[in-house]
């Protein structure tokens, strides 16, 4: 092997392995076009060597391939068909063309239909997988929304508890009991009250309000009832209400709860269910 | 010794279908084994195998025994059609996988990464075992997976020059061994 030929030894190996690209591929093609016996011999010998190496993989193919191949060959017009020789040149060309049209259509169908079916089923599989992903994402989003709502609720509860604790720690805070009155004597309530910070009402054993009605808390100061918030109770008769501070009211004499129309009223109209003793 | 395939190819060139059947029985396992290593999927390999033998049947008249053995004639054609298919499968997978990749982390790993190394090693077991591992690897990636020299360089994290050298040394060694056996 000559020194001048050396660069091409590397290119021959890459060429036989189909791995050349760009400038290398162009350079080798140009060299080969000039006619190089050494390269041609090397290419041949490399192909033989690879064929020997590939023999390590020998594996029996599925029987249907042989069958399909022989059928295809049997159906196809041969290059040396006797019919072609018997008919004139023009007729044979016409016949070959029409046979080829029919045959090629049928073998194209036979060849690609299976593949197209397979592609279609792969695509359907991917679409299904994608739909499932989208569903999962939307499920996750819903769960996240629910968790966010729960978190907001928990935060609100924590804030309320914090306020309650702060309220309880304040020496000006007092605890006021409310007793059940005639409509439902067993009802009871408590208010933690701080004139500056407001307070919290907790009620128990109140009958659930009828439709269109709601309980309203009143803070009575100097003989005048001030609306202090609306609340309802659960099936067990329990309810609670955070009460905002009442501007300008230093002392509340009495807390009371009446049953009022659902939108609430500015001065009591309904029956009184709970009331505290005058402070 | 003249390979029995040479005579069969000559008869095939004359339109002898029985010769094709015999030729297929003799050489299909060679081509199919190679295609299986390239394509993994049996269906794909079987489809390409039929195409390869169809082309061999049609090209029988062009075969020149002075230019190569029937084995080389068959494997060159099988490898070439196999690589066409490897590349088209890769393109199809890229086309189908790419639009999904943003939404779906669910694309199977094997699909997103067809060249998983373990599988690569498994597929080429017994192939070129006479060669040093690094030469075998470079040759197998090109021959069986259709990678170009620069793709192999990127895949293995090696300088391009190293890949070229390994290919040349491996192929020369292989040729030497083949020569010593004939």
Can you put this structure into words, describing what you see?
The complex is a heterodimer of chains A (279) and B (182). Chain A is an alpha+beta fold and 279 residues long. Chain A is 50% helix and 20% strand. Chain A is built from 6 helices and 8 strands; from the N terminus they run ααααααββββββββ. In chain A, strands 5-4-7-8-1-2-3-6 form an 8-stranded antiparallel β-sheet, covered by helices on one side. In chain A, helix 1 (6-16) runs parallel beside helix 3. The longest helix of chain A is centred in the middle third of the chain and has 81 residues, at 89-169. Mean pLDDT of chain A is 83; it is low at 79-88. Helices cover 75% and strands 0% of the residues of chain B. By secondary structure, chain B is mostly helical. The longest helix of chain B has 32 residues, at 70-101. Chain B is built from 9 helices and no strands. In chain B, helix 2 (17-39) crosses helix 4 and helix 3 (42-59) crosses helix 4 (70-101). Chain B has helices spanning 4-13, 17-39, 42-59, 70-101, 109-112, 117-123, 133-145, 149-156, 160-181. Classes of the chains: A alpha+beta (279), B mainly alpha (182).
What's the topology here?
The complex is a heterodimer of chains A (279) and B (182).
Chain A: H1 6-16, H2 22-33, H3 37-54, H4 63-75, H5 82-86, H6 89-169, E1 174-180, E2 188-194, E3 198-204, E4 213-221, E5 224-231, E6 239-243, E7 254-261, E8 272-276
Antiparallel strand pairs in A: 1-2, 1-8, 2-3, 3-6, 4-5, 4-7, 7-8
Chain B: H1 4-13, H2 17-39, H3 42-59, H4 70-101, H5 109-112, H6 117-123, H7 133-145, H8 149-156, H9 160-181
